[in-house]
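Hello,

I think I submitted the adenosine-5'-monophosphate-propyl ester job twice by accident. Can you confirm which output corresponds to this input? Input:
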Amino acid sequence: MSQIQINSFQDYQEAYQKSIENPSLFWGEIAEHFEWNKKWDNVLEYDWQKPETKWFVGGKLNITENCLDRHLATKGDQTAIIWEPNDPKEATQHVSYKELHSRVCAFANVLKNNNVKKGDRVCIYMPMVLELSIAVLACARIGAIHSVVFAGFSATALAARINDATCTVLLTADGGFRGKKTTPLKDIADEALKECPSIKRTIVYQRTHQKISWNTKIDTWWHEELKKVDDDCPAEIMDSEDMLFILYTSGSTGKPKGMVHTCGGYMVYATYSFQNVFQYKNNDIYWCTADIGWITGHSYIVYGPLCSGATTVMFEGVPSYPDFGRFWEICEKLKVTQFYTAPTAIRALAKHPSEFVTKYDLSNLKVLGTVGEPINEEAWHWYDDNVGKNNCPIVDTWWQTETGGMMISSLAGITKDKPTFATLPLPGIQPILLDDNGNELTETKAEGILAIKYPWPSLARTIYGNHERYKNVYFSAYPNHYFPGDGALRDAQGNYRITGRVDDVVIVSGHNLGTAPIENAINEHESIVESAVVGFPHDIKGNALYAYVITYNNVEENEDLTNEIRTLVAKTIGAIAKPDKIQFVKGLPKTRSGKIMRRILRKIASNDISNLGDVSTLLNPEIVKSIIDEKL
Ligand code: PRX
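Support: Only one job matched these inputs. Its output is below.
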């Protein structure tokens, strides 16, 4: 595997050049380092008018043979996953490649016993237990399509995702531990399943041993199912372009988008980017703190590291439990060499005394990483000084659920990092900046809308069941370019800094939240006429949500109503989407065509009212002053 690693800045420049001049040659050579049942006929076929993108066309493979089987001869006894429990008193578990292979095959047989076949969709709603990784890989083993739903989502959100993909089996747990809290996952799942006729079987992993209700028609225990199977399960041979998984992400409008990733290209890019960004070497202990409910966990806890034969850490808990030193206690204990987390976690930890960090021995750390949102200068330096001791390169990795893998990032120790900049594109990635009219900004130093002008292997191929929406969201704004929805600036050396979303998605604590679904949830309340939700800067979360709400006449606008609105949002979407601030208003600033002027609302929420621009063209200019006067 190390043959796909870039070892010097010159290597990077050569690789980048080659990837631009001859992408098919470049990616074909990288893909040779994987196990294929049949070699591809064509490296790339694409037409972004349609849009359609196919990689390693005609190739056959199973990603789990690359993650597991191929390491058995050389690394069978090496630890594949180190699992660290929520409660530090519980034992850490080390699972070797041999054992992981056997457990994945056994659970794949459980799935088969429960009638899951190639192409079926399996919803996974689980805490960060080892069995979550096993479940993901077991689906891939038999060609079933996994759809992992983050265990913080509500019953309504879970049901919407199950129904969108018509999943036939649900994998869940009785409950999950996170810090001091226990989440009643089975109860939430039961609530969701009232609305999910497609689910024929729920397989329940026992984690918390809490009391749960049981539907004998569809529920079965994970451990009981395992007693019925052996661990011999040949891998299903998949086409390179067969679906591997669906993962939902919020859109700026409408229901969540089920991003579809396929087998071959995703495998190649997740692995290539993992090895090069983190510069993973034999015997390193790599830890990504994300949840497998997000793309970061898919690509950089499970698939990228395991395809590389790495040792990857899975953590069940939270950074603040039992105290704010937990991350660093684990780093010391497990001798972590690469550590990858979110800016929001860094900001939260930086609020606490530095002894929480300094009392641990972090001398094994070589590389630090961040993902999910822009990292501010202060947080970057805190991370660099306190965790990295100014000795570890920091990779600030810009990418998305849709891109499948890291797109713009430094390569640790190979290309230079720069505070608050994601820096340079990975080989194969061709970013450009556009002005509002879609013209490319050709000066190196520039600021504009970020777009990608050429396919890369792990691009999501469609939105499940809605290719038209895929086309509209990602390929229509700037024809023949992929439009990620972010703005960026580029310095004179060509380094990119992501400046934030240019659409109505707000990144709260690294979670991607569309404002429209939150407004829809608020509007469900019987006392509410209309609402508008925007983001505003927040010290720890990066952004928080501010809801402007209009009530019906005679409704009492009190704290009870505020609480009801927040609960309703938590119930419909999840606690992460609860607005921090709710302001009752008499009206919302609108254009003459009736469109809410969110730009103005964003400025008011951010206390940036000196430059609201010309409001006189609004339908109701007077409302702006009253909103400002009554601001919280
Ligand atoms: O706005 C960008 C921000 O997160 C968005 C993607 O969110 P999601 O699909 O949930 O994936 C998050 C994990 C890959 C992007 O459109 N974002 C992600 N990474 C960065 C970032 N913004 C700035 N810097 C980053 N490193």
